[in-house]
Task: structure prediction
Amino acid sequence: MVTAQSQPQSKETEQYNVIGTRPIRHDGVDKVTGAAQYGADINLPGMLAGRVLRSPHAHARIVSIDTSKAEALEGVLAVITNADFPRASDEVIDTGEGTAQLNWVLDNVIASDKVLYKGHAVAAVAATDHHIAEDAVELIEVEYELLTPVLDVRDAMVDGSPLLHDGLHTGEMDGSKSDNASNTASHLQFTKGDLDSGFADADVVIEREFETSMAHQGYIEPHNGTAYYRADGTLDVWTSTQGAFVVRDSVAPLLQLSPSQVKVTPMEIGGGFGGKIPVYLEPLAGLLSQKTGRPVKLTMNREEVLLATGPTSGTYMRVRMGAKRDGTITAADVHLAFEAGAYPGSPVGAGAMCALAPYDIPNQRIDGYDVVVNKPKTAAYRAPGAPQSEFATESVLNELAEELGLDPLEMRLQNACEEGAQRADGFTYGIIGNVECLQAAQESPHWQSELQGPNRGRGIAQGFWFNIGFESSAYAQVNGDGSVPLVLGSTDIGGTRASIAMQLAETLGISAEDVHPHVVDTNSVGYTQVTGGSRTTFAGGWAAYECAMDIRRQMEERAAQIWECDASDVSYGDDAIIRGPADEDGNDQQFTFKALAAQLVTSGGHIVGRADVNKTSSGPAFATHIVDVEVDPDTGKVDVLRYTAVQDAGTAIHPAYVEGQMQGGVAQGVGMALNEEYYYDDSGDLKNASLLDYRMPTALDLPMIDSIIVEVPNPGHPYGVRGVGEVPIIPPAPAVRAAIANAIGVHMNELPMSPRAILDATVLGGD
Amino acid sequence: MVTVLIPQPLRTLTDGESVLTAEGHNVRAVIRDLAPRYPELADRLMDGSKIGRGISLAINGDVVSTGLITRVPEGAEIAIVPQISGGSRDYRPAVNTAIEAVKPCR
Result:
């Protein structure tokens, strides 16, 4: 493998040998040659094909299910319904980027008494081939009692609305609950200061309402799950997932198995963005394999992915914000109502905590409501909840700047949070790069340039995401030739094999090419949380650092043993030279890493390093985006002309992958801004369940996205890492909205700002 | 001594107080110190051997991931925040009983 070093390291990473360089990814050859094994590539002797029967209705009671004809079909070996699963408790399990009650997880995997969205799984079959499985599904007879679907978050919150769950009451943070059943699962509130006096101090107050549509993550690889229940009572699962341990800890209780009986092997993953955390097919494959004693593979087609897996929430939001004439924001009142889909658990909590996070506003109130509707249960999607809530707040801030005749970037600088500022949720910032991002944007060629031409406009927005840490493990062994296999539990979505291996290499003083990272199954590495929350390079890198320090200690001890001196007389240098006391001739004794590695076998055996870290600290991420657009007044189509993304990475371990994350986040954010929406009819039928009609941006829709990496090292990490994956999806929608307003003088209050929506707001004058 | 920041919705459990002080070397000890003064708050924050359902605690900005035994440094600030997803505490869906009546016809 060759290190590609086409660009110099940044000033901040010049102190390092490996960090800040751009080595070729370790898994690159397998990916580009097609050798990489994805979930659907699994083929086992005697394997059966599985297929799922899905509900044609958005809301209905299941009166009966007759599987007899399907079971009688030649080639069918098993048919299952919810009733075949062990009864699930209301135990709360860790679902990766959140928690959920086990019985909800099971009900979402396969419906019990009611179907709650079109596409909800009702039964599953295993047969000797795929065609028989498809025929068998069509032979299952289900009698439904149709119920009125609830499809809009505001409709769902109204008293008297049809209820999805008779036993659901609105939970408050203090533990109390509403007397009456409701579709509003929970309410949370954050406050700071005195809202009334804050608005009284304002010279200008703007209030706006916003609506956003459900949007899908758009990963290209559909969900899949293969399981083999062995005669010894153990279950092997192969799947495309962001968290093998989360799959294990979901499947095991659903089948009433011990975690030790379930081994999950994460296959290569064709995109996830949060959507590959929940289980859908794995428990079905597991139970079908239990019933048949043979391996069973299930895969979704694209329509099933869009109908039945978790998008991000649609929302209704209301923001009121006030400022003095000099631009000082005095108060903000934010109301967020998020669709959770069929079961509680929208990302409204994270959305509420992020909504005003970039700004030091003395008087705030943020209310969040988690609301069930007859749509698929939402899942995490890149900075879950924040693109929506910050779309609303950033948009109102832009309008305030416009109203006051102020530069929106200057106004953000004036109100920006810095170290020591406290958010309404109680968190106090440490060292952050909020102001540094704004300053870098201000100095960028894009912001300094002049935009000309009719129907063209420029917009800007800021974004914040927490980033998280939590548990990661790493094992590494020193081979006799000095190479180091590194064993990880983190599924590699965005180049984390490389970014974690680089941190191990930096700590050991060896090259990235001498480290060989491998993502392994749940029996072969310590517990590792999901690849999500922008945590993997942060926490996985920290585990790699600790693992390398473990190796360093052992290498020092081994050198001391060889030199017959005390280990305290040996030291490990930054250049991977292990130095000891002078020999009898007065010469310094030293080993290179490879020289000592060559002597390990004859001096006591190989060295294995290991680490398990559970880091609660994190490095908050900020981003500033600038966009130029042109609006076609006849069609309402918006073209993105120029885009610049500025982001604090803490330390950019592999700058090319940081840039890739920034550009990918922008592409998805622009998709949410301009095109992407789940389009339902009144019966709850998703009318655009294909990637032809669910319109994601392609390379032809976007210009080259300029990326400016700011590096304000995170003091809570050995190499200063902050997560980079999520924050870049947040600013695009409010930045594009501001650019459209700048171009044609119309402020859009819904997402997506599609040609239809823009024409509706311009030519048709709104509703 | 440590400071515990009480979010608005929980102030019904603290007689309206927004900031409390307490003693304790770990999360459990801090909650136990609060219990005689604010028993309902303590019940909300501690569920047997776990932090209360749907609640997360952050000590000096770091989210607690090691439960009630998490060490609390002297002078620390503890924030109470909701878990970033999940559901309401007392929801007991009717489906588990209803399902018994919907056995598939075999």
